[in-house]
Design a protein that fits this description.
This is Cupin type-2 domain-containing protein. The chain is mainly β. The protein folds into 2 domains: 30 residues, no CATH class; 131 residues, Jelly Rolls. Helix content is 2%, strand content 37%. A 5-stranded antiparallel beta sheet has the order 3-4-12-7-10. The model has no long low-confidence stretch (mean pLDDT 90).
Length: 168
């Protein structure tokens, strides 16, 4: 049963009789649960890591958010990549991954490593070339990632320098 037309207060009555703001459709008035078994691997990938999609347009109808997990096996290094115009937030769940980028703000470019552990957060600005490394010979590194774009933008690169970055 559709929501009744809004009244002059800007509210609409749901089938259960609750008044809600008039432009919010039924899909966007409920929480959506994604269990670990609901994660999907058919998303953009980079060599040396596995991305699993949790919250997206595909899984829950998100319009401007992408969230998922990345797994980097023991003693593995991902390929170099960036995430386009998307800001990326990373939360380290397990392991001790290193995040590597080229610091270009000094007199000379210098490869910089940020060593992390469980509970740490990393912010990756748009277009910054980087890679993930898991130096631990026995333990997989698992991180949760959230992006400001609904799509998992991944541009794989040959190196960490900015020469391959194309701002569209």
């Amino acid at each position: 049963m559709p929501v009744q037309p809004s009244d002059p207060t800007g509210l609409a009555r749901t089938p259960s009789g609750v008044l809600v703001p008039a432009g919010i459709d039924p899909f966007h008035r409920t929480l959506h649960h994604v269990a670990p078994s609901g994660l999907i691997g058919q998303t953009s990938q980079t060599s040396g890591m596995k991305r699993l999609e949790a919250i997206s347009g595909k899984t829950v109808g998100a319009e401007s958010l992408w969230m998922g997990q990345t797994h980097v096996a023991a003693s593995m290094t991902s390929g170099n990549h960036h995430h386009g115009a998307s800001e990326t937030a990373i939360y380290v769940v397990s392991g001790h991954p290193a995040f590597v980028f080229l610091d270009v703000e000094g007199d000379e470019p210098v490869e910089h490593r940020i060593q992390t552990g469980p509970g740490d957060y990393i912010f990756v600005p748009p277009f910054v070339p980087h890679r993930e490394e898991n130096p631990d010979p026995e333990t997989e590194a698992v991180v949760v990632i959230a992006r400001t774009t609904q799509e998992a933008i991944v541009e794989n690169l040959d190196g960490l320098d900015w020469s391959e970055v194309k701002i569209r």
